[in-house]
C-alpha cells in the first residue's frame, strides 16, 4: 500500500507510481478504474485487488466489485489464477482487433458520407485543421486530436450500433497507444494528414465509395505499421 492508499503489489513495472487517488465526487469507481486502465496507469497483467482498490477509490468493496464485473464485460479485466487482472492482449490479438476495426471504419466512413450533417462537416474540417496545426513533437496532443477526429467520423455516421462497436474496439487499442502515429516511417505523419484530408473531402462530397476506400487504406496502413513495430521489437506506446 502506498502512502496514497494505492494498491502497490503489482507488476515489476513500477506501479508504485500510482499516486493521485481519483476525485470521488467526480468519478464513479467504474469510471475511475476504467480511466486508470485506459491511461496505462494500471498496466496490462496487473492484479486488481478488491480491498486495495476500494481504499484507492475511497469507497466500500461492493461498488468496486460491481465496477470490476462491468470492466470484465468490457473486456478490460480478466480472471486469472492470481484473481482479477488488467487484461493483457497479445500482439496477435491487437492485430485481430485491427482487422475488425478496418472493416468497421470503412463502413463508418461510407455511412458518414451518406448521412453527415452540415454540423458534422464543420466539426470534421475544424479537427482536420487542428491535426494540421499540432506539433509532431507533441505526441499526446497528436494522439488526442487524432482520436477526436476519428470519433467525429463515427458520430457523423449517425449509426448507434457502429458507434458502439467502434468504441468497444477503441477500449482495447487505447491501452496500446498510438505508436503508429509517430513511430512509423519518416514522412508518415504527412501521409496520414493527406489521407485524413481525402477522407473529409469524400465525406463532404457525399461520396461513400471513396470515403470507404480511403478509410480502408488508412487503417490498413496503421495496421501494417503495427506489424513493423512488432517485427522490430519496439516497446508498445
Ligand atoms: Zn487517422
Notes on the protein architecture:
Helix 1 crosses helix 3, helix 2 packs across helix 3 and helix 4 runs antiparallel to helix 7. The N terminus is likely disordered. The protein has 2 domains: 72 residues, Arc Repressor Mutant, subunit A (Orthogonal Bundle); 142 residues, GntR ligand-binding domain-like (Four Helix Bundle (Hemerythrin (Met), subunit A)). The chain is built from 10 helices and 2 strands, in the order αααββααααααα. Helices cover 64% and strands 3% of the residues. The protein starts with 28 loop residues before the first helix and ends in a 5-residue tail after the last helix. A hairpin with a 2-residue loop joins strand 1 and strand 2. The chain is mainly alpha-helical and 237 residues long. The protein has a two-stranded antiparallel sheet. Bound molecules: zinc ion (ZN). The site of zinc ion has 5 residues, from helix 6 and helix 9.
Amino acid at each position: 500500500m502506498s502512502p496514497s492508499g494505492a494498491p502497490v503489489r503489482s507488476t515489476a513495472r513500477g506501479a508504485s507510481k500510482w499516486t493521485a487517488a481519483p476525485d470521488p465526487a467526480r468519478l464513479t469507481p467504474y469510471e475511475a478504474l476504467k480511466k486508470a486502465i485506459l491511461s496505462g496507469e494500471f498496466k496490462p497483467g496487473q492484479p486488481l485487488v478488491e480491498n486495495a482498490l476500494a481504499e484507492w477509490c475511497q469507497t466500500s468493496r461492493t461498488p468496486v466489485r460491481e465496477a470490476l464485473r462491468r470492466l470484465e464485460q468490457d473486456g478490460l479485466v480478466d480472471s486469472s489464477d492470481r484473481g482479477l487482472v488488467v487484461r493483457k492482449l497479445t500482439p496477435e490479438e491487437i492485430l485481430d482487433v485491427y482487422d475488425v476495426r478496418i472493416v468497421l471504419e470503412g463502413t463508418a466512413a461510407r455511412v458518414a458520407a451518406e448521412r453527415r450533417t452540415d454540423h458534422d462537416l464543420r466539426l470534421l474540417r475544424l479537427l482536420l485543421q487542428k491535426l494540421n496545426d499540432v506539433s509532431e513533437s507533441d505526441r499526446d496532443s497528436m494522439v488526442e486530436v487524432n482520436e477526436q477526429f476519428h470519433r467525429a467520423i463515427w458520430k457523423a455516421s449517425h449509426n448507434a450500433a457502429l458507434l458502439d462497436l467502434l468504441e468497444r474496439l477503441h477500449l482495447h487499442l487505447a491501452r496500446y497507444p498510438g505508436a503508429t502515429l509517430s513511430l512509423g516511417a519518416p514522412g508518415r505523419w504527412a501521409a496520414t494528414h493527406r489521407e485524413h484530408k481525402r477522407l473529409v473531402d469524400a465525406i463532404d462530397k457525399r461520396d461513400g465509395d471513396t470515403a470507404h476506400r480511403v478509410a480502408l487504406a488508412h487503417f490498413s496502413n496503421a495496421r501494417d505499421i503495427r506489424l513493423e513495430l512488432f517485427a522490430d521489437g519496439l516497446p508498445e506506446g
